[in-house]
């Protein structure tokens, strides 16, 4: 069981919730704070004070006062009118994290909702009811208004949800699990949708998959080193300590450990004096991407535990402050940074693919073909990888440098963080396919060099890869090999097979 406090949720706990099906609960102390802030809201409504979002309209309508008898209607209208998301829905894991992160933010006790609202969010999580949330339509400031409104619709018995593999109405999903729809009261609709939970939820999923891609990139690159008879001197510890980047030093350590006892790698001067940058600079390039992951993880863990709605209630209601914590700029920057890091894994991987298939750059059969000329071998695999790399360059353009005014220019600067987060997911998917292609080519190069000469650890990577892609004895429809190998890399995110090998390598090195 993972206990939410509003302050202490971590990426490691998220892994437990997503992949180990841990249930989620709210801490009693945090729920007491929720109840306290709720009493402050009820006092504001009873005394008819003018407070944004509680007794007024929203956005440009902040100067419109709302009568006490219309407070519930105001909240319902808010959710329905703001549910303007478009496009394909977010994956269920993203929807699940949106519920968890929204509940965790409310548990800080600064939002003024009733405890039952938090309870119902966690009910959806524990019953595995995942609202259908369209991916497009958020500007990433005033929060993820459209996506979160679709999330809230299910609490009201409206909208749509995924339940037990089936898409159904939100009302039906609640009925199947014995849950009652909520009726929102003062401030609750605003508190539920004023936040960055869509971009943050997708961002956390991005991080988890990028982390696994990083390990995969290091291992696959080590196998490529053997296929190209790479020079190991460039990975010696002294050179990386001399520069001082921890992540670069760690990548070099991993590569050395993978290649230990290889009969295929070479030393300076044996075949050549220096390798091309795509081999020699693996620690520097991969290490820089690992640096980005550290930055992104830090920002995501802050945002997962942040109060991001508006207004916020302090000192038992003595201070109700309108601010801008809903602005997604920190996560927008983080996602744009992660886009670049993931794109670079693909960029350098594609160059290593080129070095394996180009007969002018190696002594392997042209395009790794068993019958060059009659058969094209991996020729068009490299084309496909190059196309994905080029597409990544377009997607890597920072979403956060854009802005557009909304709500009659009241909301005149926005983050576009959700767009950045979505584009990051696409770059990661593209990069996974490029790495899968490198894996296929590296295995084929190993076949030509002699699999028995591989290092013990890279041989395990070879054997794992061969479970999805058989040796290429003749031309075939390689699309299926590429898709199966891509799926293998993606599935490694959910278990310890590849990562487990990596941890053991680090411990033994």
Structure description:
- The chain is mainly α.
- The protein folds into 2 domains: about 1-195, Fumarase/aspartase (N-terminal domain) (Fumarase C, Chain B, domain 1); about 205-305 and about 340-509, Fumarase C, Chain A, domain 2, CATH 1.20.200.10.
- The protein contains 19 helices and 9 strands.
- It has helices spanning about 10-20, 30-45, 70-80, 90-105, 115-125, 145-155, 170-175, 190-195, 195-225, 235-245, 245-260, 275-280, 280-305, 330-355, 380-395, 415-450, 455-465, 480-490, 495-509; strands spanning about 1-5, 25, 85-90, 130, 135, 160-165, 165-170, 310-315, 320.
- It has a 3-stranded antiparallel sheet.
- Strand 8 (about 310-315) and strand 9 (about 320) form a beta hairpin.
- Helix 14 (about 330-355) runs antiparallel to helix 15 (about 380-395) and helix 14 runs parallel beside helix 16 (about 415-450).
The number of strands is: 9
Largest sheet: 3 strands, antiparallel
**Strand neighbour order, sheet with most strands:** 4-6-7
Helix residue percentage: 55-70%
CATH hierarchy: architecture of the largest domain: Up-down Bundle
Fourth-level CATH superfamily of the largest domain: Fumarase/aspartase (Central domain)
Order of helices and strands: EHEHHEHHEEHEEHHHHHHHEEHHHHHH
Distance between the termini: 35 Å
Q: Under the CATH scheme, which class of the largest domain?
A: Mainly Alpha
CATH topology of the largest domain: Fumarase C, Chain A, domain 2
Assembly level: single chain
Taking all residues together, what is the mean pLDDT?
92
Structural class: mainly alpha
* Stretches with pLDDT under 50, minimum 5 residues: 505-509
């Amino acid at each position: 069981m993972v206990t939410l406090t509003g302050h202490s949720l971590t990426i490691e706990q998220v892994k437990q919730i997503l992949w180990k099906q841990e249930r989620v609960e709210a801490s009693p102390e945090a729920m007491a704070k929720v109840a306290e802030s709720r009493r402050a809201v009820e006092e504001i409504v009873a005394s008819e004070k003018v407070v944004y979002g509680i007794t007024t309209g929203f956005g440009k309508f902040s100067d419109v006062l709302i009568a006490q008898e219309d407070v519930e209607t105001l909240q319902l209208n808010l959710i329905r009118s703001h549910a303007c998301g478009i496009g394909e829905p977010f994956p269920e894991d993203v929807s699940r994290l949106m519920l968890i992160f929204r509940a965790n933010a409310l548990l800080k006790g600064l939002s003024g909702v009733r405890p039952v609202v938090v309870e119902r969010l966690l009910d959806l999580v524990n019953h595995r009811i995942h609202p259908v949330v369209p991916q497009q339509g958020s500007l990433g400031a005033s929060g993820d208004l459209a996506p979160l409104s679709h999330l809230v619709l299910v609490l009201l018995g409206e909208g749509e949800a995924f339940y037990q593999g089936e898409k159904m109405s939100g009302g039906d999903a609640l009925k199947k699990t014995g849950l009652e729809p909520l009726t929102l009261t003062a401030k609750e609709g605003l508190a539920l949708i004023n936040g960055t939970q869509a971009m943050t939820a997708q961002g956390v999923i991005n991080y988890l998959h990028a982390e696994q891609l990083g390990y995969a990139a290091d291992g696959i690159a080590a196998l490529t080193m053997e296929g190209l008879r790479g020079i190991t001197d460039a990975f010696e510890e002294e050179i990386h300590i001399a520069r001082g980047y921890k992540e670069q030093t760690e990548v070099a350590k991993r590569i050395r450990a993978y290649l230990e006892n290889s009969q295929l790698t070479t030393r300076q001067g044996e075949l050549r004096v220096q390798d091309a940058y795509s081999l020699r600079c693996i620690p520097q390039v991969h290490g820089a991407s690992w640096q980005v992951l550290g930055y992104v993880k830090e920002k995501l863990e802050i945002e997962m535990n942040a109060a991001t709605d508006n207004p916020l209630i302090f000192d038992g209601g003595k201070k109700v402050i309108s601010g801008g914590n809903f602005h997604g700029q920190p996560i927008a920057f983080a996602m744009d940074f992660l886009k670049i890091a993931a794109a670079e894994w693909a960029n350098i991987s594609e160059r290593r693919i080129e070095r394996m298939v180009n007969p002018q750059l190696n002594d392997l059969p042209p395009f790794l073909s068993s019958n060059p000329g009659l058969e094209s071998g991996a020729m068009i695999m490299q084309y496909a990888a190059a196309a994905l790399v080029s597409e990544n360059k377009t997607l890597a353009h920072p979403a956060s440098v854009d802005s557009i005014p909304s709500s009659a220019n009241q909301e005149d600067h926005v983050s576009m963080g959700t767009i950045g987060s979505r584009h990051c997911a696409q770059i990661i998917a593209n990069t996974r396919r490029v790495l899968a292609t490198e894996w296929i080519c590296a295995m084929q190069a190993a076949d030509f060099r002699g699999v028995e000469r591989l290092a013990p650890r890279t041989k395990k990577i070879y054997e794992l890869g061969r479970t999805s892609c058989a040796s290429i004895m003749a031309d075939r429809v390689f699309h299926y090999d590429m898709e199966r190998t891509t799926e293998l890399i993606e599935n490694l995110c959910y278990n310890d097979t590849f990562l487990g090998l990596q941890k053991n390598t680090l411990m033994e090195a």
